[in-house]
């Protein structure tokens, strides 16, 4: 169990689906203006500017306003604060929220959501697995000592996702007495139903499951603080304020920047995914450590020991480059763009138009309806001095994801496995 937290610290839930004070209860409903600000703060967390009421607003000031609204009317309420964020959030998101909270709290404690969820288990940390459900993915956190984290996209039907989660858990721990904690936030679409499916799949392997809904999460927060129930509070900013005044104050802090965020959180995967069996867990396969890389609103799996950098100069679009430590010509390139409403055929037309404007021979083998590791994609090859890059362009909801797999000419095997893993795992996140 984690060290006790001193009393009178309000526990703030910052994501995945809302921003609220847990120790005030779960029945609080924010007014329309504050609901819009909370939604904008969460939706634009990877950006530095958001549009609220048609005005550009600094995202940091949105988070300050959202957090300030949770003081329950007490002037001393936010001198201390415990901020709980989704465990899978990259450092860029945690840094954004922490910076906002530090402007309000003299004594701030920032903890991953798994820290609070683990309060529901009497088992040792090494025998506890935490499952967090978000809009676009399910994140499984194993033993803290091994830093085991696996993310599964919510692209398939709930039953299939549940089986894949159960398979990963079986690969993480052979201890049949392990406790699996499943987080089911009511603010995430279909999370309670998916949690029930996951619980059924995990229980069928003989493991103990604890489902944690919003009410139970609130009780865990109160228990962690070791304090009695508090009066419920409503979300407001210093009492009743007009929409114009609120948005006007926020807009005063607006800035115009176009740099996207980059965050990396470590993942050590040790099990093979496959069909869940109830008689025994799947065979554990030793694999190279991987990293769960988050670039803006895209996440994918890359090798843990490959250095990551942002490339904004030279040929091609601004991108994140993940390079082999043993060969600088072996690398992955990742770009992402919001393309709400775009189809794959529309993507192909845009890319073909851009390619036709480039010198002949630079972009070749263009396929507007290709398949890459089983996923529909636009594919083509970029030829540069000393290396080539095979590009796979995917659509996942409103996001276009481009994964480039770089190798020396004639040596595609050097990047093949890493490339397939990146393309297979690339997905948009909420």
Percent helix, as a range, is 25-40%
Average pLDDT works out at 78
Catalogue the unreliable spans.
Answer: 1-7, 227-287
Structural class: alpha+beta
> Biggest β-sheet: count, sense, barrel?
7 strands, antiparallel
Strand order of the largest sheet: 15-16-17-21-20-19-18
Gyration radius (Cα, Å) is 23 Å
Number of E-type strands: 22
Counted by DSSP, the helix tally is 10
Distance between the termini: 30 Å
Please report which band the strand proportion falls in: under 5%, 5-15%, 15-25%, 25-35%, 35-45% or over 45%.
25-35%
From the spread of the alpha carbons, the general shape counts as globular
Write a structural description.
- This protein is of the alpha+beta class and 430 residues long.
- Helix content is 27%, strand content 30%.
- Strands 15-16-17-21-20-19-18 form a 7-stranded antiparallel sheet, sandwiched between helices. Strands 9-8-7-10-11 form a 5-stranded mixed sheet. It has a 4-stranded mixed sheet with strand order 2-1-5-6.
- The longest helix has 15 residues, at 158-172.
Present the secondary structure layout:
Blueprint: E1 11-14, E2 19-21, H1 32-43, E3 49-52, E4 55-58, H2 59-68, E5 80-85, H3 91-102, E6 107-112, H4 113-117, E7 128-133, E8 137-141, E9 149-153, H5 158-172, E10 179-183, H6 191-203, E11 208-212, H7 214-225, H8 243-251, E12 262-267, E13 290-295, E14 298-303, E15 308-311, E16 319-323, E17 331-338, H9 344-356, E18 363-372, E19 375-384, E20 387-396, E21 399-407, H10 413-425, E22 427-428
Parallel strand pairs: 1-5, 5-6, 7-10, 10-11
Antiparallel strand pairs: 1-2, 3-4, 7-8, 8-9, 12-13, 13-14, 14-22, 15-16, 16-17, 17-21, 18-19, 19-20, 20-21
Helix pairs in contact: 1-2, 2-3, 5-6
